[in-house]
Queue: 2 jobs
Job 1
Amino acid sequence: MANLIKIAGRNLFRYKRRTLLTLSLIVIGVLFVTGFMAITGSFKGMMIGQITDSFVGHMQIHRKGYLAAIDSLPLTMNLKPGAVRKVEAVLKKMPEIEAWSPRIKFGGMFSNFTETTNIRLNGVDPELEAKTVPLLLSRVLEGDKALKKGEIFVPELLAKGMKVKVGDMVVVIATNRDGSVNGKQLKVGAILESATGPGGRDGYVHMADAVEILRMDQPEISEIAVRLKDFGALHQVFAVLAGKLSGELNKQGRPIFDVQTWEKLSPFYNIARMIDMMTLFVKIMLVAIVLISIMNVMIMAVYERVREIGTIAAIGTLPRKILAMFLLEGLLMGTIGAIIGSILSGVTIYALHAARLSFDFGRQTGLILSPTIDPMALMTISGIVIGVSILASLQPALKAARMDPIQALGHV
Amino acid sequence: MSLIVAEDIIKEYHVGEVTIEALRGLSFEIEPSSFVSFVGPSGSGKTTLLNLIGCLDKPSGGRLFVAGMDVSGLGKTDAAVFRGTHIGFIFQSFNLIPILTAYENVEYPLIVVQNIPSTRRRKQVEELLAAVGMSDQQNKRPDQMSGGQKQRVAIARALVTHPDLVLADEPTANLDHDTAMSILRLMKKIRDELETTFVFSTHDNRIIGEAEVIFRIEDGVLKTNGKNGGHGNG
């Protein structure tokens, strides 16, 4: 076998320029695909992290039907304390859950005593919210990060528009469940940076203040945001949790709860899917590059060596061995290309990581690009290249193996 | 027992609706260790006959026995196996593999055809290179060798698998007269040493005299045979 590999190697480098050109195409292809995967993967991971960790959470639990009406934030579809206790009992028993935070979401009027505008608010337990969406506090641009009773965290754009600063007094007025209106004077505790996606421009008040404004006897919860210990296990945990809560039925025999992952809650998921699609297309391009370039080289190799094939067939080389010899040439070229491409990819991605390049996304600026590539992904790309190389060599190799020795020997 | 027995060999080619009779009922026998030449003008059927004996092609009619086996109906793979075991080839244009050295060219059939272990390979290759006088040129590639040297290497390659028979189609056609004579004498010397049967074709009258048995072919028919004991009846 070692001799056959040696011969295959020499045959490849018989036409150095052509082989090097083809190899460089494969290397550039591998480099491009892995680089693209690393950069888009970094961007995707960062954006998903931003969305899940700063306001959405990994999963959310609502009353069934709430999500369809979420634009109007209907208080009538909130979860009663008994239902919340049932959910919390289930969550407590699941070791995969790191934290959860019940929220009262409501719309209201925000007044600085001279002007009034709309605002969407979350009434939260600050401690539970910080555990569930740990990046929320990093969005605090000004003011104290601890949300206290009687305070409001105002979204950045609204604060600018209404010209309010930390420490200013404002009034929040909201329509209660029974249709009456109630208001409360609150102090601006902090200005919050906007985040991309729905809920990224909401304000925050303490749960007790929300209960007071909405004149609730007990907190009635709009949603429960859930954080997992391992984000990678999202779909497994989701299936388990959804399964456990699906058993809870209302008087009409319909499920009470609706569990959703962040994917159903944020439009960024569609961008993430688009990135995955683009990655797939880039991979298909790599396959095409390898397939066409290796096939071209191997077709030329067979065409240029017809007499030689005739000679080796005449001296008794079995057709299957001739097939193997040409497949080996393609395999060798693919393997060399994949190895060099993988090494260069590793070095390039490491360099990009070390360079700490920053980029802006929407209103978020200075995001640091941290491209990384999973060794498994690198091996998969290499495997694809090697597999396609063999595939590309198959037709020329079959042609060589099936060649009639007499015709081949007579080829000029 | 004869090494080659041809019984009424016919070879026809079909070009469109036209049938060309390349060989028309040839019968002959060739004894082991003989030094045989098929002689005739271009297009007389020499190469066709050598292709049949070499199991590169099948006769359209008649029977052909080589080394005791009826090779008339061998399939592609069986024919390849038979060639690799019993037959060596020498070509007019030498047909050495350009990326390999003289040593590697001779070694090639042992690796690819016979799967001989490396220690045995080395011994066999060195013996053959010494026999053809190319030991000191063994690291040269074909483009660094003269025509005569290339043909010597080709002879060594043909013999390295210890075949019963070596077929050479116009082995001296691309060589000058002196080199051609030296190649034929080398082939004869090796025949004497290894007792391998050599069958070659030529239309060069200057070297015909070196053959011990001569079969003359014209228009696919065996006209005359043997100056030293050939047994043709064509």
Job 2
Amino acid sequence: MPQSFLDAVWLVPLLPAASALLMLLIGRRLPKPVVSALCCGSVGLAFLTSLGIFVEMLGRAPGPERVFEKTFFTWIPSVPILTEAGGWAQFEVNWGFLVDPLSTVMILVVTGVGFLIHVYSIGYMAHEGGYYRYFGYLNLFMFMMLTLVLANSFLMLFVGWEGVGLCSYLLIGFWFKKKSASDAANKAFIVNRVGDAGFLIGMFLIITTFGTLNFTAVNAGLSNFSMGDPTIVAITLLLFVGATGKSAQIPLYVWLPDAMEGPTPVSALIHAATMVTAGVYMVSRANGLYQLAPLSLEVVATVGAVTAIYAASMGLVQNDIKRVLAYSTISQLGYMFLACGVGAFAAGVFHLYTHAFFKALLFLGSGAVIHALSGEQDIRKMGGLWSKLPITGKTFATGAIAIAGIFPLAGFFSKDEILWKTFSAEADPFFKVLWAVGLITALMTAFYMFRLVFLTFFGQSRVPHDVEHHIHEAPRSMTVPLMALAVGSAVGGWIGWPAALGGGNWFEHWLEPVMRGRGEAAAVEHSHATEYGLMVLSLAVAGAGIWLAYTFYLKRLELPERLASRFAGLYKLVYNKYYVDEIYSRVFVEGPVLGKGMGTAFAAFDAHVVDGVGVDGSAWLTRLVSRLTIWWDTWIVDGSVNLLGWLVWVLNLPARALQTGLVQRYALWMAAGVVLLMLYYVQRYWSLFFSS
Amino acid sequence: MVPTTHYLMLSAALFTIGVVGVLTRRNVLIILMSIELILNAVNLNLIAFSRQLSDVTGQIFAIFVITVAAAEAAVGLGILIALFRTRETVNADEIDLLKG
Amino acid sequence: MFYLFNFYVLAALTVISAIFVITRRNPVHSVIFLIITLLSLALLYVQLQAEFLAAVQIILYIGGIMVLFLFVIMLVNLDVVARQAPFNRQWHIAGLAALVLLGELVAALYWGRGTPTLPLAPPTALQPNTELIGVTLFQNYLLPFEIASVLLLVAMVGAVLMAKRR
């Protein structure tokens, strides 16, 4: 029996897993209310358990006491490995959970936001077919994601990593009969796989370097390496490749916009709040490794910043409400990686946490809008919905304000933290350039978010007539989660109230033991004045963005058109997402060397080597063995039996010869016998018969 | 007078001829006739000795031999007829049901 | 002298007709020669002062058994047989065995110990033959006599049964 919530940590991933399994086995026969109750209930219980764990962790002293590792069984038993350092290590992987401040934050976010999205799905998917299948996949995803964040080793994390990738595929392609949906699902999975290759090679390097994949053990072995050790650089870069795949950074971001084909709650959960944040989590988990490789950190920060501004630029001109939010997600993830890259891992996780609230809220809100407009997703066909959809509108606006970074909503605190840490990073003056990039991105973020808000909810209604009649507010199952998330977006950031403004930045302190690097301490050198100045600057920038959006889309509606025609070429380039999808397609899919060439080569390898040698080969081997067995059976086993029979026959030939059935032959034998006997006796008793 | 040995020699010769006939001929009738020859050889032997030893027992025994010969000939020929009805043959080598 | 000459003639006749009995293809010929053999044997019995047996031989053997043989030959279809091989496949060995047997018997008789020492009985012994046989038969050998009659009965029944059409 578990003694405490911590002991029962295994319940957290297992509850959703159990209900997923139930869905798999008997889901088809269950009525919808039962499905809803089971699946939402399991996630709700997981959330309560996570809360319990959090409370227990609070009760412990900060530092090593807050690290709780529980292993269940050995997965890969001890194998001796020769490490790079020359020593022999026993490589072992067990199935275990690591509960520390970082994973506590993660499980709370995943189960909490996940629960709200499950409840929302009850309303959103009420009229859809495959209800049980949807919830089954969703719960399976929860299980995989929780395994990922609770893992105690890179390999277990990878198990969860792959699992969420699978669930993403299943859920994006939920309406699999629609070709665009199944294509998008394939794209997501395949692009992720490319990243996973990097992750795997990184893991192999970790095995040969450290002899283990366990987080605690790896962290313990870090002291053997000096700053900038090339092996560590290689490991961290490879791991980051995996992160770009999962967290949609350049160059592997292309799957995320297409993933909007899936149901909106799926986009909210997987592609906003949880799965895409797995990369950030992984980098934060491995912060010890990253801090030994400044080059990798530079790479991470640069990629993050560039992705942020790049995605934001594409979000400016998209017309599908969900696409805008998708590019926004990519952009915000860029912020998180920027934070990690400058060494402020806690800030990155903080932004992850706040982003989960407002991005989920925005997605769910867009889902409510789509639901109200009977499936319309083009913002050019929306407008004037504020009065018709009050709750949706207000909550959506709250999310938009939060993401724009307006004080005192959540986004302000996290984004500002990142920008401050980037600016004040001492390791590299180049980071100041990245700060500027981040600032410009903030402007763009505010602009495109409020463009969305204004075009959707305000202004003239451009909704077609037949749809207009059916506009109705979403049911309670959908509006209540929206409201809950709005509250979270509003006050959620207060746990990270910075010291400069008088708070204690509780969040950063909470994560301090896990993040070995830069915390508040490093920022002490800069005066609070600089920090205030930057805060005001970022607020001003956000405000400017909102004002611009207001001008373009509410006051002077002709401006967007004029600007677009003035910079027609640039507009076209951005609108078509810089043609990246087309380039990838040309090079990797249809390309003679990389696309078709390699594809054909691998297909041939599969057909001739794997199938030919392996499958057909084993079939041939089986036939050969069977032929040998037949020969053995016929000639040796049957042969010995036959031999016995033949032996009997041969030995009896003389006897057969006697049994002719001819009486005269018998008489002859008798006569001959008599004659011979007589001869014998006469011989013997000669003297009796003859006198001479 | 004729020495008994002469009669015995004749008896031996007749006996041998009878044996040859039994062992050699295919026709069952001839075989039966050869058996009669053998029996007659024995009879001659008995009577020759009866004369030498002045004992009538030999001749009595010869009577019985003839009686038995008659009985045996009758039954044997009956069997032959029965056999001929089923097998359509009187050849001894064609009757080999017990061949094994 | 006369008896010796008689003996040799009759002996020759017996042996020759016996040989003819076993070598003729046609069974009827064999029967005829067997009759001649039995006849000459009967005459030899007469020479041996066993007149009764000579008569019995002729009446019973020739008149009964040989006639029976002839009847059976008549019943059995022997046209085919006349054209088939008379001797079977084992006649070489059979002949050899018979020859050895003859040799043994002759050797035993010629060089054996028993026969020369026995005196010859007077010619008038065992006379009158028939009365003597009758008396001995019905006094000393009554039981075998009766059993012989039963034997004949059994044989008769058996023969009838055997030859009966089922």
